Structures are given as C-alpha cells and as structure tokens.
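HUMAN: Can I see a protein plus its fold?

ASSISTANT:
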Amino acid sequence: MGAGAAGALVAIQLCETAARRRTPFELLLIDPAPEAGRGIAYSTLDPRHRLNVPAGKMSCYPDDPGHFVRWLCRHGEPGVRGGDFAERYRYGAYLADTLGRAIMAAQGVVTVRRLRTRATGCRWTTLPGGDPTARLELADGRTVDAHRVVLATGPSRANAEWAPEALRGNDRFIADPWAPGALDAALGQGDKEDVLLVGTGLTSVDIAMTLDRPGRTVHTVSRGGRLPQAHAVDPLPAAACTTPLHGLSLPALRAAVRQHIGRVMRTHGDWRPAVDGLRPVTAEIWTSMSLEERAEFVAQYGSLWNTHRHRMSPATAEAVARMRRTRRMRTYQGRLAAASARPDGSLTVSLTTGDGPRTLPVGWVVDCTGPGLRLSDTADPLWRSLLDQGAAMPGPLSMGVATDDGRLHGADGGTTRPLWTLGAPRRGELWETTAIPEIRAQAATVAEAVLDPWTAPALPAGGGSARRRTRRPTDASGFPLSTHAAAATAYRLGVDRLLKVRAGAPQALRRSVALDPGFAVGHAALALIGHECGADVDVSRALADARRAVRERADDYERSFVDVVSRRVLHTPADGDAALLRHLGEYPGDALALAVAVPTIAFSGLRDLDGTTALRVVERTAPAHGESWFHTSLLAFMRQEEGRYDEAGALAEQALAAEPASGHAMHALAHVHYERGDHEAGRERLRRWLAHQGRGGTHRAHFSWHAALHELALEDTVAVRRRWAEQLSPGKVDGVRALVDSGSLLWRARLAGAWQGPFPIGDVLDTAPVDVLERPATAFVALHAAIALTAAGDLPGLGRLRVHALRADEVQRSVIAPLCTAFEDILEERWTEAVRGLERLLPRLPGVGGSAAQREIVEETLLFALVSAGRCDAARGRLEERLDRRSSPHDRRRLTALSS
C-alpha cells in the first residue's frame, strides 16, 4: 500500500529477492499516483528542488552505494560525482526506472499489478487452520485479498491544528503545497503578492524558491525561527564519537555530544562531520532513552537537531542566501496568531514574535510545517481502520506505530498478522527514519521477512521439483554449482571463452545470471571481468548481486570464490591476493581462479614485486591440472618472465598444438619472440595466428600491439602507421584496451621518432571513461592512464590522477603517484628531476602488474629524459644492457647515434 519511494524500495527488494530464490507470488502495488516511485517527495518538476543528501548516499541498495551515481552517469550526467546533489525529479525517475528493471528481471516468477487507487480499509480474517488474510477495501469500491501487507504510506499529512479557524476555511490558505496544482494560483495572477510560509524547514525552503518572484517577499515563521543549515561544498568524512552514548541520561548525553562536536571542530574546523558521525548510532541512543527523556528532547532540541541533521544542498543554500540578501525572503521566530480576509481577497496576518507583534499583508498562507508526528490523530481511513480494530497501536510518544523490526504490533501487543511498515510510521521508535539511507535498509529487512515463509529451494530450469535433482551441474573444473543446468551451461561457455581469451565471455555470463538471478558465481565472474578486464559490466551491481545470492545458496567453494572477487574489487591488493592464494590452496583445480592469479593478458594477477608468487602458484597447482593446455599456457608465460625463453617457447607450442585458439599460449610465444629479438619471425607468427585461430579472440588489439613492438624495433614506421589505422585506432579499440594498447603505442612511437604529423592521442582519451582516467581501480590501468595523459600533455589530468593515487591502494600511492610527478616533470622539461624520479621507480614497477614488455615504456621514457638532460653516457649504458639481452635494430641505431 503506497508506491512512492518507500513502496518502490520494498517492491524492488521483493522482486529481486524472489527472482534469486525463484519464489513465485503476485505483487500488488496500490497507489493513485500516475507513476510508481515518485510519491510526494520526488514528483516536483521544479529543477531548483534538489536532494538534501548527496547522490553517493541515495542508492536504492544498502550494499551498492554507488548505484544512483552510476545511473545518473548513464542517463545524461556523465560527470556527476558522489558528493553532488541531484534534482529531486531525477531521483524519482531513478526509482521508477530501477523498479521497472526489477519487475522485468523477475518476470516468470513475480506477477505485478498496479491498482491506481487508495486503500481505505484493511480487515483481517483467519480461516480455521489457515494463515491470516487481509481484505483490502479500495476507494473505488473494489476489494482485494492479500496474504502479506506492507504499509508504505509515507509521512502522515499535517492537520493544520495551529491555524486560526478563520484561516482554515479561507481559499488563500494552502494546506498541502505538494498537492497537484496547489500553488497554481500563487504562481499565476497573484505572483506579485507577498506570501507567508508557516514553517522554516526543508519544505519551506523548497516552496520559497518555487514562489520566489521579483517584487515579492516570501515571509517564513516558525517557533525556532531556524532555517536548515547547509551541507559543505567540500564535505569531510563523518567523525565517529569516541565516547559511548548508549544509556546516558539526557543531560549527560547533551554534554557528551557537545564535547564530541567541540573535538571535531578543533580537529577539522567544521561541525558537520561530528553530526554525521552520530547518524549510525542515533536509533540506538533514541531507544535507550526513557519516554520522558524522548519527550523532553523533542520539545527542547528537536528543532535544533533537525536544522543541523537535515541540511540544504550548497546550491539551495546559496539561492536562499541570495533571497535573504535582497530581502525577498524574511524569517521570523514566533507563531501565527491571527488572520483575517481583506476586501480584495488577500489576507492580513498577525505574528507574535520575539521582537513583538507584527502585522503583514499577504496574498497567501502556506502550511510548510511538514508531516504530522502523531499517527494516532490521523484522518487517513486506512490507518484509522487498523488502529480502531487493534491491528495497529500507537508508537512511543504516540508518534507513528509500534513495530517489531517493522512488523506491526496489535493492540494485544502481538505480531501475529503479516503486516509491516517502514519509514515515517516508525518515527516514534527510531526517530531518524525518513531519509533514504534508513528506508532502503528497512526495505531490505521487510522484503526478507515477507518472503521468508515462502522461500523454497531454487527451481530447475523449466520448473519441476527441486527435490528430484540429486546432482548439481559442475563448472569446467569439476566444481558443483548451485544453479540449474541451463545457467551452468552458459557459465561454462563464458569461462571457456575467458580461458581461451576469446570473444563472448560477458554475453555468456550475463546469460547465466539471466537464467538464474540467484547464481552467485555467475554474478561474481561478471564483476571480476568488469573490474579487471574492462568488460562492459556494472561491477558494483554484479558484486552486490553475487554477495546477496551467496548468502542464500552456496557451498564452501562458491563462498570462497565470491570472497576472492569481493576482496579484489573492494579491498586492497594485498587483501585480494591473500584471499586468492587461500582459495587456490583449497581449490587448486579452479582454472578461472588460476587465470586471475597469473598476470598475463586477461587479468592483473597477483601483484608481488618480483612475480615469484604467481610462478609458485602455477607450479604448485600443476598436479590438479595435469597436462591441460590451459595450465601449460600459463606455465609458458611464467617461464618467459623468468627469462627461460627456450623452455617457454616449447611449452607455448605444446599448448597451441593441443588448443590452437589458446590466447594465453600465443601471448606467451609473442613475448618469447620479442625478448629473443626475433622480430621478423614474431611479427609473421602473430599475423598468421590473428588471421586464422585468433579471429574470434578478445584482446586482438593487444596482439596487434605486440606486432607493432616488433615493427618499432625493426624501424618499419610505415607498418606501424598502417597497423594503428587498421587495428588500434579508436573505433577499432575502445575503453581500457585503448589506453593500455593504443595509447601506450602512440607514446612509444613518439619517443622512437616513428610518428610524424597529427598525433591522435586525444581520440584515445575520448574513448576512455572519465573514471578510468581519473579514478582507475587498479595500478596497472592507472599506469596506462598516466602514459596517455602524458602523451596528450595534460598536466591537470596528471594532477587529478596523482591525487586519486594518493588516496588509493598502497601500490598506487607508492608507484603511480610519484610516476605522475615524474611525468609532470617531463612535460615541464625538468629533465633532471624526471630522471631522478623515474630511476627510483623502475625497481618498483613489477608491483603494478602486467608484463615486462608493457612496463618497459617507463624505461623508454627514462631514456628520452636522460638524453634530454644531456646524460648520454647513462642512456648508452641502459641501451647496451638491453642489447645484451635481445637484438633490436632500433636500439642499435640509437646506441650508434649516442656514441658518435
């Protein structure tokens, strides 16, 4: 009942949880609004009405905080950040869209009906031996029956008890400013008349901005006379209170909170982090207070708390300040004492203020006092029927209703009826319960409670009894999967394509979770390839789905795999590596996990500085894989990293003989040819493989990059330009792959003097998402973002990347941040400083991941800086060292030029 924000959030959780569990039911959404999700709060069309919580805290999902921000980025606001304050109407669109997607994803499991009317009554009956059933009476005369009822009715309407009798019956009194068309008259012919808003909270601020007109004064009055405080433009993180607050008397609590705010003010110079730090413990503090203390708090401190806790966005605060400076908005502390009609239909109002009585001529009086606190006084027929029959009872201080974690208490104190509520009706027991961060958590809890009695084992594809299935399907490595056969088949296909480095893995994995939304490992694999392979995947969403699903059905292997992915995405590289090593120690035959561990072409791998850990893992897991082509491919790659090129080449050829499409084996062979200096042979082998067995491969751009390295070494600049145009230019390659391969090749070509004419690095940067350039998730991607920004001469971009790196994981802090500084020195032609910085970084580069050939670009940049700094002897020494390892016509010519 109710399909505004709270109802939509519950419906989203119900649909998605039911789809994961394959729990069929019918969902009725009863609400008269034309669109679900908006309710009163998010129906406003005024673009000046903004959320009073940053976008980064407004996700529908408690376990996926960035969901709303990503939605905004996909829907016309690509540069939005988590700290921005979106328009309220946009948030309503987000809720409606997310609900629509959840309903579509649950098709075949959940049947959804919307009844555009109001519920006016709810009567409970219990048949002998049956469950309680609700008969819902609707405003259009129909009745419907339901087995579970969620009251998502939002805040109760104010009853304007404060208003003088003469005012309540006057047409110039607007009792509900959010009602459709309520403000039309004040915005039309009467838009020059002054207006009085009773209330100075967030509602008053919104209405004041809507009614603001040149020549009009908007007067506001309240007992406290306080307007909401403003959010900081550059907010600081919340500061938790170090003093235990639970169980303190009200005077002791007040003193402790003031001390907390004082400490934070001295440390940060701002009170906001202190108030934000109280948010996680507000409900706990509230429940520990006696009823008398709660009543005293509401009477004495409620207004002060609300003005500091529920703040205006910076843009709104600036608009209000401008209105007050120009006297178009005036605020009074006091109350409305009387009102009378004037001959022209306008009003004369009398205020009692701290400065004495004041009389104002106004055209309109608007009730902006906000929702009523006492649900027991409500005139709403639905709540009235529940209270009158004892199905609900007033909550503490008669605010809202009494519940047990959202389930309503009846007058007898029991919770026998399957009847829940959330949000504003829980105000008396929680105090803070009207903001999205609280409501979304309650929605998840309510959905879980509603579905728990119905939850059954996951159904196999095509229906049928789950009990008949005695064996679970397995993945390619033989591990059982908690899903049905069709989803497992799609998953095996996706993993097979990943292991062969062939196209189609994301599509197959998406198919697996579409067939079974509760397939935890499928969601985790999607999150993994989005995070580490640059696949077009909403990583946070996929990971949240995996973590939800793994709690509901999974074995130890699946829980371990999801934990690995979670730690690689959400935690530090060290945590991710430790989890991966534990997993492979327990499950050495897991080919996908092994692929993740080895830093080859697909994944960033284990990020130890010298690569020995990955090698030990490959060697230790050999007995579990036998003579498989995949394990042989990885061993070939590790042997070439050790410099054992003959052995690596033989292993790669062995793997290719068993599986000619093995991208890992061909990749290892490409490195062998490059490190041996077999440039002609290497280029030709790559050409043949790409034309035949590698035609369906992913990362074709990377193999083309390898071929281009041979061509740079051979100083075949015509071939380099042709390969760029045909295989590596934007449009042929996009996103992260364009940074890693196309961008780095352009910089190498420029350093080698092999690129003349227009330099298309800007086209490469245009294909990369802003987040990848400024907030890369891994050090490997960050390295290539820095290279591309340097090639583009983008000093500000390097600065932003450096700031991000300093706040990221240890490898980014210790390697990427100083690398950005060294590249800035390159662009500013501070050659000595650049050389010093790059020389210090070279030994630490293996920790970034990737191959030696990829990281070599930093040494190429160092050689350029050495020559530019006039340190030709040092440059010669490095080139001689390299030529001792491998042949290169380009390096030989450079050495000759430096020696002449």
Q: What stands out?
A: The longest strand covers residues 329-341. DSSP finds 39 helices and 16 strands in the chain. The mean pLDDT is 91.
